[in-house]
Specification:
The protein has about 60 residues and is mainly alpha-helical. The protein contains four helices and no strands.
Amino acid sequence: MDTLQLQTQRADRFSSQIVDRGIKVQESFSTLCAIEYMKSHNIQPDVIERVLLQPAQRRKNSH
């Protein structure tokens, strides 16, 4: 696995679940709610921006 792949992988399963829930929060409530949810769980700002504002850049759901 190269460095780029390591940098773009989600840190762990827990973080993956938080991001997936954040996307659901965005769909159910608002982008602002999703941002606050992910920030409160220490998801990196660049990840939050990518998954919420650039849906085409999302990874496939891991479940």
